[in-house]
Structures are given as structure tokens and as C-alpha cells.
Amino acid sequence: MKTVLTIDDSRTMREMLRRTLEGAGFAVVQAEDGRHGVEVLEACQPHVIITDVNMPRMDGLEFIETVRGDARRRVVPILVLTTESDAEKKARARAAGATGWIVKPFDPQKLVDAVNRVSL
Amino acid sequence: MSAMDDIRQTFFEECAEQMTEVETGLLAMEAGAADADTVNAVFRAVHSIKGGAGAFNFTELVAFAHVFETTLDAVRAGRLTVGAEQAAVLLRAADVLADLVAAAHGGAGVDAERREASSGELAKLLGEEGGVADAGEGDGMEGLDFTPVAVSFEDLAGGPAGAQDFRIVFRPHAGLYAKANEALRLIRECLALGEGSVACDTGAVPTLDALDPEGAYLSWTIVLSTTAGEAAVREIFEFVELDCDLTIETVSAPSTAEAQPGGDADIAALLARMQAEIAQPAAEMDATPPQPVPPEAERRKTTRRAEDGVATASSIRVELERVDRLIDLVGELVIHQVMLAQRAAQAGLAARSEVAVGFDELEQLTREIQDSVMAIRAQPVKSVFQKLPRLVREVAGVTGKSVGLVTEGEYTEVDKTVIERLSDPLTHMIRNAIDHGIETPDRRIAAGKPAEGTIRVAAMHRSGRIVIEVSDDGAGIDRPVVRDIAVGKGLIPAGAQLSDDETDNLIFLPGFSTKEAVSELSGRGVGMDVVKRSIQALGGRVSISSQPGKGSVFTMSLPLTLAVLDGMVVTAGDSALVVPITAIVETLKPRRGDVSSFGRDNALINVRDSFLPLIDVACELGYRATPTDPVLGVVVLVESDNGQRSALLFDAIQGQRQVVIKSLEANYGRVPGVAAATIMGDGRVALILDVDMLTAQSRFEQIASGQPAFNSFVQAAE
Q1: A91 vs B50: CB contact, 8 Å cut-off?
Q2: Phi, psi for B458 (deg, rounded to 5)
């Protein structure tokens, strides 16, 4: 079973992600912000990471940079959750090392497709 | 669908938390005390609401949150400076947002005009500051009508009637792989759109000694025949378009045999090779890191992070039901501990014996457990106080007064149930203070006061109770007017002599309302008597003190919890009863001359020249058929919620004690005159009296209610 780590400070979002992904047969591990995400990565090796951008303590972009700077787990695909489809935000996510992005509110099927796509 | 309903519930819970965050942050911004973190937190909160709302299709909420968020983003980026004026706009927007959330939750819809006015204001803020996207000066509607429209490029290009042929040249940069993207995946996606062929150019691969294992040396040419259109093809490369050289050309004639630059065109072989290539980084991840041992410093850093995590994860969510069960059990524990101690005493154990000392220690521990468990339910009054700024703004707006709010002691903790029921009386008191207390700005200036009035709400602990003071620096209570109204409404006789305090307290009488025309705010058909009644229902008391020209102070005093009660244990017949201390005014031993009988079994007692109905409780509750001689008993003077005083006759007073409240309704059934029950140290059940019901249902009911409520008071004063 593939494991997905989702990082979002919104309980609503975490809940939706969890239900959607578990419903599609993924194991789901959750974190509430970037720093928490980094801690969780110490203990688990997800196949894909989905992260929000705006979060307290450590935002999504900083989280991605941290992961990409870590030789042990830099090859993990990271999808960014973003409310806007605007180009500037995407460019910033890309510059930070995001593999791709999902626009919120997400369509459950599209989310699962995106995860399947990047996790090969 | 119940799963979705659950998430919806979570969403609204979260919205409530986020609105609190927004309000707190905006108030800090208004006070000029906001740092970058605060602004970020406010932005994030609005952003989260928008995100969640989108998932549930709350379009109005999403649209408004978007406009709000855009403005906050400008604040965050430093493009917009927040002064008093801007803060006011943002606060109004927060109010609208809160209402939209409530509307989405099934509440009343939001006045479209107000919503539009607010988003207009927000847009205008942006406009003034030299502007971002949807700022507009017009009618303030721009932001609202924001609806993303999907534009189909295929349609513009004439429609994907037939298949089109594309020639895609794709040369990834090393950065593409660094972001965990894979050429194989992208190529596979392309081929999934239609039919085609792939050729790999290995010409750039250097010799082994010059090869960077993480470099990018391969490029591919894909010839694809698809009906999906160019946009769909570009979409596949959307994530990577900056990390590769990509050309997508339309080829006029389908020809798969075209241009297959130097190399193997066998797709299967190619894919196999690519598989092998990508297997390498994957293996790297699982195996030892390619870098030499991670530096010591790095490792230390990660350990510290983990510790941070431990330190911050300092709260958990627990269902209220579990806590209540715990409280219940601890209540039982207290009762049994008292029982056990009593049995030990009865068995004749010396007070200094080891067992007795052990019981003392046990008692102390039990108390501590009880206090700690109660503390779980305790919450800071902050959650109630946070709603006040908005209330003050609204009331001030409607009354045309200028009012500032100061809160103190918002971290004072009190039981959750008390908090929940505190909101209404507090709201009403503040409305009243602004509506009736604070003067209009010109009158304030004329009186030599600052134009802006101040409402101060302070919470504090005082001798095991929570005290909440609502004070204003307004005109104070206009005693002559209050008096006239009370006389006019027949609440007091025309010639009554009242002290200042007594006059002030007239406003708590049922049917009293100082404003002849019930104003839109304080009015609503209820007066301060309702406030008093709801506070008394919580086992609390309310009082007022006022200084003409300087303002008034309302003081509420409430128990910290509704699970235990301070009571006076009394005996009536063979039973022990508990009278809540809050209801008791005084106790006295009646003298023969003070009691006058009338009718067959009725009596009045003269307490300092005021005649009160004397109720023999044992008789009233049916413990015995005929009243005893009052002189043999003890009289407890009680005041019921509506200010009426009565004298309750008991056989004896045992003493004051803290008792654990057990619901009679939940365990047995409702008994008129009895509020609840408790279990005494000897294991017997004692009923806790409902003083209100008891006095109201007594045979003196007609007499008592026939008298103007303050008569006794007035007579006493005369």
C-alpha cells in the first residue's frame, strides 16, 4: 500500500484529504504544518507528499526546500495544494522544488489521479 | 452522506476558531500592536475558510473571503498600511464574514447590501494604495462577481473534430529530476492521449568519468496523434515547463516515421532502459545516502526539531462526554470518601490514629482530584469576551455613540457550562450599558468627558467564585427618572423612601424599562430582570452601583462550576434538605410575637417591620400534615429570582457544606420544589430545594404575588 503524507493546518482539509485518499486505498499520514511534517518524515517514508502553502511555523514552500535539501528523501514527489491557480504562486512552488500542484477545492478523482501520476 | 456531514461539522467548528483568530488579530492591528505573525495568522485564517468553503460550494462565502483575503494579502506584503480607518473596514469585513459563515451553517442570510458595501470598502482600500488585481472603485460589486470561467482553447482553435499530429521535443534539465518529476511519467501521459511513437536521443550522454549521476543527458522526441488538442498536451508538461526545453509543433501530415534522431526507436527497449535509470534514484532513497555520513551538526538540528515538536504538542481534544463521566465518578468518589470517614469516626477511631490520619490524607487527595477534574472543564472566559468587540461596535453604531471596549482578566477560567450560559446576560448588560449608560458624544463633551465612552469588562476570581464586572463611564443611573417610572408602573408606592442603592436596584424589577419607547437594542421586550433571572439560574447574583455623572458598575458573581454547590444543610421532618447559599439572605430564630397566624394554617412573620409569608417546608413537601410551632424551628430568609423574599421554616440547621449535585430528573423524575439531589456523608440522599418553585407554589402564592414586589423592602425602609 502506498503511503501519502498530507500537511495542512486546516482540520477540514486534513479530514477531506484523509477520507479521499483512504477511500482510494492509500495509507495516509498527516501533519499540521511544515515543521510537524519534517518531524513526521523522521519516522516514515511516504511515497508522495501533499502540502498546503500557507501554514504557521513553517510554510509549504519552506517545507519543500527542507525536503529537497535532505539527501535521503529529496526524490519524494511533493504536490502543493493551492487555492489559486495563479501563475505566480505556481512559479514559487516550482522554484521551491514542488513536483506539481492541486488546485483547491479539489475534485477527489483528480486528486487521486494526480497522486497516482507522480507516484508512478 | 454522513462522511461529508462530518467534515462539514469540522469545517464549521474550524471556522469558529478561525473567526476568533481573525478578530483577535484585527483588534491587535487596530491597536497598532500587530507583528508580521499576527497579520499572517489572520490571512491564513481567512484563506482556510475560503479553502474549506470552496469544497462545500458556499459560493457567496468563497467570493467574499477572496476579496477579504486579497486585501489582507496586501497588508501582509506591506503594500497596505493599517491605520484606524483601515482596521475599521477590516473589522466590518470580519463581521460580514462571520455572518456568511453562519448563513452557510443554516443561519439567516446576509443582507446583500451590507456584504457589497463591505467588499466595496475592501476593494477601495486596495485601490487607494495603488492597487492590485480586482480593486475597483465602481459600485463595489467587482469582487463579488468574480467567477473563474474556464476557457477552452480547443474551441477557439476550431474544435478537436479530428485527430491532430504533434511533434514534441522534450529535453529535461537536471532540475526536473530534482523536483521528483520523471520523464517516463510525462511520456507515458502523452502517449495516453492518443497514438504515437517515442525516440530517445542519447547523443549528449558523456563518457562515464564525466557523467554526473544526477545530470540530465537524454532528450526525447514524441510524435503523437491525438484528438485532445494542444492544451491537453501542454497541461501534461505544466509542472515541468520551466525545467526542460520543450517544443510542441503541429505536424500537418500524420507521419510516425518522421525524424527519429540518432538512436534506438524501439519503444519497449527504450522504456526498459528508462525504467532502469529511474530505478537508480529510487534505490538511492532506500539505500544508504550517497553523501558521506550526515554532518554531526545536521543531525543535532533534526533532534532539536523533534524536541520542539514534543514541547508544542501540549493539548489534546477530548470528547466532553468523557470529561463529564470523569466528573461524575469523582463526585461519587468524594461522597464515598466522606461516608468512609464518617463510618470510621462512628467506629470510635481516635482522631490521631493512623487510620484517621490516612483518611485525612485521602480527603485531601480526593479534593485535589476533584479540583483537577473540574479544571479540565474550565475554560478561559476569553471565548465569550471575544464576541464583545463586535457587539460594542454594532451597538455603538446603531445608537450613534462612540464607545471603546477594555477587557481584563480574559484568561480567568470557569466551567464550560457557565461560560456557555454567560454569553446572553453579558451581552444584554453591555447593550444596556451602551444604550442607557453612555451618553452621546456631544453630551459627553458638554459634561467635560472624552467624546468616546468606555465600557470595561473585567473577570476575576474572588473567594471561589468568578466575578464579572461591566462598568461604563456614562451618566450613571438617573435616580429621579427611575423612581418616577417605578411609581408610574406601580412597582413602588408614590411616597416610598428609597436609599440610592434601592433605587438603582429597581431596574432589575420585572416590567421595568427605562426607555419609554423600547429601543431597538436593549429593548427586544426584555429588561434587566431577565438578566438577573438568568444569572440567578446559574446560581449567581448581580448587583449594581452607580455614581451620577460618572457611570455605573454591574457586578455578576457566579459559581465556578455547576457540578458542586455551596449549600446550607437543614432538617425538615426526618429529612435533610439543602438550600443553595446564593438564595439565602439571612437566618433567624423567630420570637413568639413576630409570628401572626391567619386562616387555618397560614402565618406571616414580621422581620424588621416587614411581613413575609412563613412557609413550613416540611408541611409544604408533605413530610407532615400540620405546621409545627414556628418558635421551635429556624427561619431561613430567602430571596427568589424575582426579588421576592419569603421565610422558610425548618426544624434545624445542620451547617454549611459543599455538595455534589446529582440530577434528580436524569435519575428519577422531576419533583416540583426540588432542583436536584445530593448524597450526604451518611449515604442518605438529600434534596436540594428549588427556592423559586417552592415559594411560588406555596399557599401564599396569591398574597405574595399580589403585593408589589418591593413592598416589603419599602416598608422596611419606612
Answers
A1: no
A2: -130, 140
Judge if B387 and B532 occupy the same domain: yes
Answer yes or no: are the C-beta atoms of B10 and A11 closer than 8 Å: yes
Largest CA distance in chain A: 35
First to last CA, chain B: 70
Domain membership of residue B143 (yes or no) is: no
Domain ranges of chain A: 3-107
* Count of structural domains, chain B: 5
Asked if residue B491 and residue B532 are part of one domain, the reply reads: yes
Which of B527, B559, B591 lies at the terminal end of a domain, its last residue?
Answer: B559
Its ipTM equals 0.79
B673 with B575, same domain: the answer is yes
Q: What is the pLDDT of residues B494-547, one digit of tens each?
A: 877 888 878 888 888 777 765 544 444 444 445 777 788 788 777 777 888 888
Give, rounded to a whole angstrom, the gap between the first and last alpha carbons of chain A: 13
Distance CA B236, CA B190 (A): 7
For residue A105, whether the previous peptide bond is cis, meaning omega lies within 30 degrees of 0, is yes
- Smallest CA-to-CA distance from B542 within B686, B432, B694, B439 is with B432
Over residues B546-578, the pLDDT tens digits come to 888 888 999 888 877 777 777 899 998 888 999
| CATH code that applies to domain A3-107 | 3.40.50.2300
Q: Is residue B503 domain-shared with residue B622, that is, in the same domain? A: no
Q: Which of B254, B190, B181 is closest to B220 using CA atoms?
A: B190
* In the predicted structure, residue B214 carries a pLDDT above the cut 60: yes
- Is B182's Cβ below 8 Å from some Cβ in A? yes
In this structure, the answer to whether residues B587 and B545 fall within a common structural domain is no
pTM: 0.47
* Interface mutation target, options B176, B179, B182, B308, chain A, most CBs of A under 10 Å: B179
* B151 is a domain residue: no
Q: Which residues in chain B are closer than 8 Å to A13, comparing Cβ atoms? A: 48, 51-52, 55
Which residue's entry shows cell 462539514? B8
Write out the DSSP string of B467-510: EEEEEE-S----HHHHHHHHHHTTSS-TT----HHHHHHGGGST
Range of the domain at B202: 161-286
Query: What residues of B are in contact with residue A107 (Cβ under 8 Å)?
Result: none
- By the 8 A CB rule, do A13 and B51 touch? yes
